[in-house]
Amino acid sequence: MPHPHRSSSRPLRRTAAGLALALSLALPPVAAAEPGDWESPESIVHALYEVISAEAGAQRDWDRYRALFLDGARMSIAVKSDAMTGIMSTDTEALVAQTESAYANTGFHEIPLVTRVERHGLMASVTSSFEIRLRLDDDAPLMRGINHFQLLNDGERWWIVSNVGVMETGASPLPPELLPAAGRGAAR
Question: What is the superkingdom listed in this entry's lineage (predicted)?
Fold first, then answer.
C-alpha cells in the first residue's frame, strides 16, 4: 500500500487521462474560425477585437467568436462611475445577447492599442489596452480601458479562458507603457 503522502504514477496517469478527456469534451467546435485566429496569443486576442467590432446594422460572426473561447469562459469588468460601481461578469452567450441589444443600431468597435504577452509554455497572459468607438470615423474614442486575457494552449491551438477588464478613469488613466507611441489604432 502506498504511503499516504506519496503518489504513485498509476493514479497520476489516470488523472492525466481523465483531465485530457474532460478538456477534449469542453472544447467548442472550431470550424467557424478564420485561419490563424488561434496561432498565437496575439492573434486570438486580435481576432476577438475584430469579431466583436461592427458598424451599425452589420451582422457579427458569432460562430467565429464562440470558437475563440474555451467552454465556460468568463468575462468580467470592474466599473466605477457616477452611474454604477461594481463588477459585471458574464459568459460568452450573455455577451452576444448584450452586444446585439446594445450596439446593433449604433455600431461598436473595440480597437486594440498596445498588446503585451507574457507566455509560459502552454499558458499565456495578454494585457491589451483598447479604445471604444461607436463608429470608426468618430473624432475621439468614447472610452478606453485595459483587458487582461488568460489563455491556454491544448497543444494544437490557443483558447481564451477568461478576460478581466477595467475602464480608464480620470483617477486611473492608462499607464504610459500601454499607450500607442503615436496616433490611434492597433499596435502589435
Answer: Bacteria
Query: Which residues are CB-neighbours of 119 under 8 A, at least 6 positions away?
Result: 41, 125
Residue 24 in grid coordinates: 477534449
Residue 82 has what pLDDT?
A: 81
* Separation CA 75–CA 47 (nearest Å): 16
Query: Per DSSP, what are the bridge partners of residue 159?
Result: 152
Sheet holding 85-91, edge to edge: 85-91, 69-80, 158-167, 143-153, 123-133, 109-120
Q: Are 159 and 27 in contact (CB under 8 A)?
A: yes
Q: What local confidence, expressed as pLDDT, does residue 17 receive?
A: 43
3-state secondary structure 113-124: EEEEEEEECCEE
**DSSP 8-state class, residue 177:** G
How does strand 143-153 pair with strand 123-133?
A: antiparallel
Confidence of residue 9 (pLDDT cuts 50, 70, 90): very low
Q: What is the pTM of this model?
A: 0.78
Distances (CA, A) of 123 to 66, 108, 119, 120, 161: 20, 30, 6, 5, 10
The Cα 27–Cα 30 span in angstroms is: 8
**Do residues 148 and 165 lie in contact, with contact meaning Cβ atoms separated by under 8 Å?**
yes
